[in-house]
Specification:
Elements lengths: L1 H7 L1 H21 L7 H9 L2 H9 L7 H29 L5 H5 L1 H13 L10 H12 L2 H4 L5 H25 L3 H4 L3 H30 L4 H11 L16 E7 L10 E2 L2 E2 L2 H8 L3 E4 L2 E2 L6 H11 L9 H4 L8 H7 L3 E5 L9 H7 L4 E3 L11 E2 L2 E2 L1 H13 L5 E6 L24 H27 L5 E7 L9 H8 L5 H6 L5 E4 L8 E2 L3 E2 L3 H8 L22 E3 L5 E3 L2 E4 L2 E4 L12 H19 L3 H7 L10
Parallel strand pairs: 1-10, 1-11, 4-13, 5-14, 6-7, 6-10
Antiparallel strand pairs: 2-3, 4-12, 8-9, 11-12, 15-16, 16-17, 17-18
Helix pairs in contact: 2-4, 2-5, 2-8, 3-10, 3-12, 4-10, 5-8, 19-20
This protein binds (2R)-2,3-dihydroxypropyl phosphate and manganese (II) ion.
Manganese (II) ion (MN) binds next to helix 15.
């Protein structure tokens, strides 16, 4: 009986197995995917199956044997082409194909030349399944190819397909929580859900943003522009241009929150160098500065810094809107003669940086390929901060000046692992392993920053640079409230959770001498205008939502991406208004005017991004109403 069922569907079964195995061998021979354990290996093997069962399964609805075989062959040719194209693309770009890259016309030249230069004779291997299917069609007796099956059998087939899909997604979620919502890396997506499903997912994400983009016609700019103009904070003439012409070195301090700054853990100073730095007369230290990031974490903080717009809610804007027109800080600096670059020793594709950096007008991305990771120089997520900084300064020495370099650190990243020799203070002791180790990795990062400053001084770059350092987002989530409460010696309330979103910001201007601690509420969204004004670059005609922190017009108001906000008097969270001084619940009326403002501002940011509104700006001249910005 079983023999009958199998032989009846033999071409289909041959096709599924052949394409499945061809795909799997394609994975292991053509892509350099890091597999850390047996589970990841199993997911890799499993991941093409649900898609193949589904797409080949459509053949079960085709009655004519000839047509069914043509359909099966077409599917196998298509899947082979997908794998083949990705393999060739990967050889050149070390990344998987994503739709925006195919549609960015500027890529066409590169793409076609790199494709032809990267063809190997062995690439015919990707079509092995097509050959096997042809042989099956040729040699399996025709009467055995006539398929008759009940509707129930067909239903069962698709139920099984769905079950395999669910198992695949479940295992992927276990391996990489929030993979699909955060979609942080194409390599991880392919590793976990497979090339075919990844392309469907990519198509879904891209079509969603294209649809929203198609609905916008530019008329929305008037309303958004009016809001932006009304909230424009003109630069303080005392501060405007004080760092003009200098190099800008902006450092993203991974997962660094303000609660460790100027504090001790069991008698150990956690950030000795940063503490000193905050008192340095060349430094402005911002003690009430907040991150505005969402699921896109580090990439969201990069987005905020570059554009002074909020990232998106529920997804990473670096992934969903890398095809937009932006008015990034990098682009503006580039127009003013700066060599703009990002230095980060990780895969190019992580957070879709390789694509997004093009949209942000960044001249060069020094990714992992630009670094040499020696023995013992990697931990946790990759290259350790100290060798990363050492090598980055060497690279900076070769750069044309002035340059704008963004350095993204990595060691102080969850799960906060560290080699023994890098543990400069002991672990904390609480029920949270995460918090316990966090203090140590923060201490290591502090040491790394100290070494960076020494390297910069030794290189001669220091005096003519401005160094901006900020925590990118929280490192300790609310899941660790109990341990956090133990450390802070209080019960953590929603008010405290909001205040814990404070990240440190340092603006260090060598030789300036008039720095101080600024305790005004501000956020990452304010970085772009603040820095550009210090460089003597005007932002009057730009569309952005933050405000220069040094401006007398800057308002003490930080909006979180999830709608919470902080003012100088209140914290609004979970629909409750708290008094900042006491941390106690207070009359909601105090928060009301800001509630409206916060949702309007987030909404305008979404409108700009979803509608890709900045593409209309040039057509329409400057932002509507810009003459009022004086
Ligand atoms: C990855 C690094 C960390 O390249 O930026 O990302 P995160 O998980 O913090 O967003
Ligand atoms: Mn980060």
């Amino acid at each position: 009986m079983r023999k009958m069922v199998c032989s009846k569907h033999s071409v289909l079964i041959v096709a599924i197995v052949a394409t499945w195995l061809t795909t799997y061998f394609g994975y292991i021979t053509s892509f350099n995917m890091k597999i850390d354990n047996m589970m990841q290996e199993f997911i890799l093997l499993l991941n093409p199956l649900s898609f193949l069962l589904f797409v080949y399964g459509i053949a079960l609805f085709i009655k004519s044997t000839k047509r069914r075989n043509i359909y099966i062959l077409t599917v196998s040719v298509m899947t082979s082409i997908i794998m083949f194209s990705n393999a060739v693309f990967y050889r050149f770009f070390n990344d998987f194909i994503t739709l925006p890259i195919l549609f960015q016309t500027s890529n066409f030249g590169d793409l076609s030349s790199s494709v032809t230069a990267n063809l190997h004779l062995t690439d015919v291997f990707f079509f092995t399944d097509v050959l096997i299917i042809c042989l099956a069609i040729r040699f399996i007796p025709k009467n055995e190819q006539k398929v008759q099956h009940s509707k129930i059998a067909r239903k069962l087939y698709f139920v099984m397909t769905a079950a395999i899909m669910m198992i695949n997604l479940g295992l992927a979620e276990m391996e990489r929580p929030q993979l699909l919502t955060r979609s942080f890396d194409r390599e991880l997506l392919v590793k976990n859900i497979g090339t075919y499903n990844y392309h469907i997912y990519d198509l879904f994400i891209q079509s969603k943003s294209h649809a929203q983009r198609a609905l916008a016609d530019g008329s929305e700019l008037v309303e958004v522009g009016n809001y932006i103009n009304a909230n424009y904070a003109a630069p303080d003439p005392e501060m405007y241009g004080i760092a003009e012409g200098r190099n800008i070195i902006a450092i993203s301090l991974e997962s660094l929150q303000s609660f460790v700054i100027n504090e001790e853990m069991d008698g150990h100073v956690i950030t000795p160098f940063l503490n000193e730095l905050s008192k340095d007369p060349d430094t402005f230290y911002f003690s009430d500065f907040y991150h505005n990031t969402g699921l896109g974490k580090t990439s969201d903080s990069e987005f905020l810094l570059e554009n002074s717009l909020y990232p998106r809610n529920g997804s990473a804007v670096f992934f969903t809107h890398s095809g937009n027109t932006y008015e990034s800080m990098a682009a503006q600096l580039g127009e003013n003669g700066y060599f703009t670059n990002v230095m980060h020793p990780n895969n190019r594709s992580f957070w879709n940086r390789d694509i997004m950096y093009g949209a942000l007008g960044i001249d060069k991305f020094y990714d992992i390929e630009s670094y040499t990771v020696g023995e013992g120089e990697a931990v946790n997520w990759g290259m350790k901060d100290i060798p990363f900084f050492n090598q980055s300064v060497e690279l900076m020495k070769e750069m044309p000046q002035p340059f704008y370099s963004r350095l993204i650190t990595l060691t102080n990243h969850h799960p906060f692992d560290l080699d023994e020799e890098d543990k400069l203070i002991p672990e904390y002791t609480s029920n949270s392993n995460t918090l316990n180790k966090y203090f140590q990795t923060v201490r290591y990062m502090d040491e790394a920053v100290k070494i960076l400053f020494e390297d910069l001084k030794a290189s001669g770059l220091y005096d003519n640079s401005i160094i901006v350092m900020y925590g990118d987002h929280y490192g300790i989530s609310e899941n660790h409230n109990k341990a956090m409460g133990m450390y802070l010696d209080k019960e953590i309330t929603p008010f405290d959770n909001a205040k814990l979103q404070r990240v440190p910001l340092y603006i260090h201007i060598p030789g300036y001498g008039k720095g101080k601690t600024i305790d005004e509420v501000s956020g990452q969204v304010d970085l772009r205008p603040t820095i550009l004004h210090l460089m003597g670059l005007d932002t009057k005609d730009d569309m952005y939502l933050g405000a220069d922190i040094f401006s007398p017009d800057h308002e003490p108001f930080a909006i979180f991406r999830d709608g919470r906000f902080v003012t100088d008097k209140n914290v609004f969270t979970q629909d409750v208004c708290y008094d900042t001084e006491t941390g106690e619940e207070t009359d909601k009326g105090e928060c009301e005017p800001f509630m409206e403002r916060a949702s309007t501002e987030l909404n305008y940011s979404d409108m700009i991004i979803n509608g890709d509104l900045l593409r209309f700006k040039e057509e329409q001249g400057n932002t509507p109403g810009s003459p009022d910005k004086e």
